[in-house]
Design brief:
The complex is a heterodimer of chains A (280) and B (333).
Chain A lengths: L6 H8 L1 H28 L1 E3 L9 E2 L2 H7 L2 H34 L5 H13 L2 H14 L6 H25 L3 H9 L4 H30 L2 H7 L6 H11 L2 H25 L1 H9 L3
Antiparallel strand pairs in A: 1-2
Helix pairs in contact in A: 1-2, 2-12, 3-12, 4-7, 4-9, 4-11, 5-7, 6-10, 7-9, 7-10, 8-9, 9-12, 9-13, 11-12
Chain B lengths: L4 E11 L5 E10 L3 E5 L6 H9 L6 E6 L2 E2 L10 E4 L11 H11 L4 H14 L15 H14 L4 E5 L7 H18 L2 E6 L2 H7 L2 E6 L2 E6 L1 H6 L4 H6 L4 E4 L5 E4 L4 E5 L7 E11 L2 E8 L2 E7 L1 H5 L6 E6 L2 E4 L6 E3 L1
Helix pairs in contact in B: 2-3, 2-4, 3-4
Classes of the chains: A mainly alpha (280), B alpha+beta (333).
The structure holds adenosine-5'-triphosphate and magnesium ion (MG).
C-alpha cells in the first residue's frame, strides 16, 4: 500500500523530466486549491485545534451558527439583490451601447471602447474615493443607488466588450432578412440579434454577477453603514468570529461562483465560454 | 410590352463615400418577368438590388412598384423580399420557425401558417424538413428554404442576389430549373443577380448587362447574344474572336460562325495554321494561329476530322460584328 506513495517509484515510472513536471503540477495545484481545500475542511469541522491539520470532528455545527446570525444572513440576501440588480440594470444600459459600438462605425469608436479599459487601469481605490466625493455632494452615500452605481462601474467593461463582440458575430444579412420579412428595428433586435448573441451576453452577465458578489472596496466605502454585503461582512467576520465560522462564510461566498461556472460548463459548454471571450 | 410594368427604376444613382457605386440606372420590369442583372464582380449588381430592397438609400432617382415611389420606405414597409448570397436563415430557429416568422408578423392564424408552410415546402421539394435547424442542412437545402421563406411573404418583387453561387455546378443548374418553374407557375416578378453569363442566359426573360456601375445593354438573352452592343459585352457573353483591323476598329466573330477550309493560308477572311484541336463534348474547338492572333472555330466531329495539327487553313467568317475603337458603336456586317 505504502509503495503507491513512494516518490522514488514515481520518479522511475514517470522518468526524470515527467517527474519534475508532475511535481510542479502538484505544487501548482496545492498553491491554488490548497487554501480552498483547507477552507472546506474548516467549514465542516465541529472541533478543530490549531496545530492539527485534520479536524478532530466533522459536522455542520458552524453552518448552524453562521445561519443563526441575522446580520450575516441579511448580508447574503443583500449581496444577491445587488448582483441581480447589477445584471439587470447593466444589461439595459450596456447592451444597446454594445450594439451601437458593434454595428456603427462612427468617429471615436475606438476611443470609446478604450475608455472602458481605462477605468480598469487605475487603482480602484482612487476611483472609488473620487466617486465618494461626488456621491457626498449628491447625497448618494449610504444609498442603494450609490452602491449599485459602484457595482455597475465594476462590470461596465465586461458588459460592453463581450456583448459587442457577440453582436458583431451576428451577420448583418440576418438582421436585414428580418427587416425584409416585415420586422421593425426593435423586433429584429429582440427576435434575431439578441438570441444569436446570447451566449456571449450570458458569459458577460455571469462575470458581472460574480464580480458584483465579490465587490467589497467600493461597497464598503459607499454603502456603510446601511448596505453591508457578504464581502463587506467578511472583514468583520475575520476579526470577530472563530476561523471555522469564517470558513463557512467564505464558502457561502464562493459557492454561487462555483455553481454558476459548473452550470455554465454543462449547459453552454467551455467552447462558447471561450468564444464569448473572443474580442471582436 | 403588353404586360403592365411592375418595377421601375428611374434615373437612380447610388454612390458610396469612396466614389464606387451605380450611376443613372434606368430599368423597368413587367409583371411576371425574370430580369437578370449580369456583370463582373464589383460592377454594382448588389448595390442596385439593395436599393430596391430598401437596405440602401439611393442618392437620386426613384424606385417605383406599381407606379408608387417606394424609395423612401424602410425594408419592412416595401413589398419586396430578398434572398441574400449567404447567411440568410436564422440559425437559432428551425426551418418551420424561420418560415413562420414573417407570417406571424402579418398576424396570420396558426392554422393557416402551418398550411402555407407545408404547401411551400412541397413546392421547393423540402417536405419533412420543418424541425431541422439551418446548420443541419446542406448549402443547397438552405438556399431552397431561404427562397421558400421569401416566397411565403408573397412579395410583389422577389430579389435574388446570387442565391446559387455557393452551390456546385450540378445542383446549381437543377436549382435554376426549379426556380424558373416556380417563377412561371406563380407568375412572380423577379430580379436576379449573377456574374455567371451562362446562368443569366439559361434563366432570364431579359438580361441587364452592367459594367463599372452603369447599364451597358438590356435585352433578351437571344438579342444580347446575337447583337452584343459593345465590345465589352461581346467579350463577356459567349465565346468571341476579336481581330484588330489596321484602321483601329475590331472585327468580332463567334467561333460557331468561323468555317475552315484546307488551303494556303492566304485566302478567306484570314489564314493561319492549325494549332490545337480539342474535343468539347459533342463538338470540337479548333484553334488557328494567324498573324492577328489565335482564331477559334467550332466544328462537328466530321468537319474536325479533316484537319490535323500544322495544317494550313483559310478561315471564312459567316457573321461578324465591327466595333469602333473606344466607343460603344457597333456595325453588323
Ligand atoms: N458598403 C460599401 N462601401 C463602399 N463601397 C462599397 C460598399 N459596398 C460595395 N462597394 C463598392 O461598390 C462597388 C459595387 O459593389 P457591389 O457589391 O454592388 O458589386 P457586385 O456587382 O454585387 O459584385 P459581386 O459580384 O462581387 O457581388 C464595388 O466596387 C464595391 O467595392
Ligand atoms: Mg454582389
Amino acid at each position: 500500500m505504502m509503495s503507491f506513495l513512494n516518490p522514488k517509484r514515481w520518479f522511475y515510472t514517470l522518468g526524470k523530466k515527467r517527474f519534475f513536471e508532475f511535481l510542479f503540477l502538484v505544487l501548482f495545484l496545492l498553491f491554488f486549491y490548497g487554501p480552498l481545500l483547507y477552507t472546506f475542511l474548516l467549514a465542516f469541522a465541529n472541533k478543530y485545534e490549531f496545530p492539527n491539520i485534520i479536524p478532530a470532528e466533522f459536522g455542520f455545527k458552524w453552518w448552524g451558527y453562521v445561519l443563526s446570525q441575522p446580520t450575516l444572513v441579511r448580508s447574503i440576501g443583500l449581496s444577491f439583490l445587488f448582483a441581480f440588480a447589477t445584471i439587470f440594470v447593466s444589461m439595459i444600459i450596456c447592451l444597446p451601447a454594445a450594439y451601437v459600438l458593434a454595428r456603427f462605425n462612427f468617429p471615436g469608436r475606438k476611443a470609446v471602447m478604450f475608455s472602458f479599459l481605462l477605468g480598469n487601469a487605475f487603482p480602484k481605490i482612487g476611483i472609488y474615493t473620487s466617486m465618494a466625493i461626488v456621491f457626498y455632494r449628491i447625497n448618494l452615500m449610504g444609498t442603494f443607488t450609490g452602491v449599485l452605481l459602484i457595482h455597475l462601474i465594476e462590470c461596465m467593461m465586461m458588459m460592453i466588450w463581450l456583448p459587442a463582440s457577440a453582436f458583431k458575430n451576428v451577420p448583418v444579412q440576418q438582421e436585414e432578412a428580418a427587416r425584409d420579412a416585415g420586422a421593425g428595428p426593435l423586433r429584429t433586435f429582440w427576435y434575431i440579434t439578441l438570441p444569436n448573441a446570447w451566449p456571449g451576453i450570458a458569459v458577460a452577465a455571469l462575470f458581472a454577477f460574480i464580480g458584483s458578489l465579490g465587490e467589497n472596496t467600493g461597497t464598503l466605502l459607499v454603502g456603510l453603514p446601511y448596505y453591508r454585503t457578504m464581502p463587506v461582512e467578511m472583514y468583520g467576520v475575520i476579526l470577530d468570529y472563530p476561523s471555522t465560522a469564517g470558513a463557512v462564510f467564505s464558502l457561502i461566498l464562493i459557492a454561487p461562483n462555483l455553481l454558476l461556472l459548473l452550470l455554465f460548463r454543462k449547459y453552454v459548454g467551455g467552447e462558447t465560454l471561450a468564444r464569448g471571450y473572443k474580442m471582436g | 410590352m403588353d404586360k403592365p410594368t411592375k418595377l421601375e427604376i428611374r434615373n437612380m444613382t447610388k454612390l458610396y463615400k469612396n466614389g464606387d457605386g451605380v450611376r443613372n440606372i434606368n430599368l423597368s420590369v413587367s409583371l411576371g418577368e425574370l430580369v437578370t442583372l449580369l456583370g463582373p464582380s464589383g460592377c454594382g449588381k448588389t448595390t442596385i438590388l439593395r436599393t430596391v430592397g430598401g437596405f440602401l438609400q439611393c442618392d437620386s432617382g426613384k424606385i417605383l412598384i406599381d407606379g408608387q415611389d417606394i424609395s423612401q420606405l424602410p425594408p419592412e414597409k416595401r413589398p419586396t423580399a430578398m434572398v441574400f448570397q449567404s447567411y440568410n436563415l436564422w440559425p437559432h430557429m428551425t426551418v418551420y420557425e424561420n418560415m413562420a416568422f414573417g407570417l406571424k408578423l402579418r398576424r396570420i392564424s396558426k392554422q393557416e401558417i402551418s398550411e402555407r408552410i407545408t404547401r411551400m415546402l412541397d413546392l421547393v421539394k423540402m417536405a419533412g424538413f420543418e424541425k431541422k435547424y439551418p446548420n443541419q442542412m446542406s448549402g443547397g437545402q438552405q438556399q431552397r428554404i431561404a427562397i421558400a421563406r421569401s416566397l411565403l411573404l408573397e412579395p410583389q418583387v422577389l430579389l435574388l442576389d446570387e442565391p446559387f453561387s455557393a452551390l456546385d455546378a450540378k445542383i446549381r443548374s437543377q436549382m435554376r430549373e426549379e426556380l424558373r418553374k416556380i417563377q412561371t407557375d406563380l407568375a412572380i416578378t423577379v430580379v436576379f443577380v449573377t456574374h455567371d453569363q451562362e446562368e443569366a442566359m439559361a434563366l432570364s426573360d431579359r438580361i441587364v448587362v452592367m459594367n463599372k456601375g452603369s447599364v451597358e445593354q438590356i435585352g433578351t438573352p437571344g438579342e444580347i447574344y446575337e447583337n452584343p452592343a459593345t465590345r465589352y459585352i461581346a467579350g463577356f457573353i459567349g465565346e468571341m474572336n476579336f481581330i484588330e483591323q489596321r484602321d483601329g476598329t475590331t472585327v468580332a466573330v463567334r467561333p460557331e460562325n468561323v468555317r475552315l477550309e484546307l488551303g494556303d493560308a492566304t485566302g478567306g477572311d484570314i489564314g493561319g495554321i492549325v494549332r490545337t484541336i480539342m474535343m468539347l463534348g459533342h463538338f470540337y474547338e479548333i484553334a488557328v494561329g494567324t498573324d492577328k492572333g489565335i482564331v477559334k472555330a467550332f466544328a462537328s466531329a466530321e468537319e474536325a476530322a479533316q484537319f490535323k495539327h500544322g495544317d494550313l487553313v483559310n478561315c471564312f467568317f459567316d457573321g461578324t460584328y465591327r466595333y469602333q475603337p473606344n466607343s460603344d458603336q457597333t456595325e453588323n456586317v
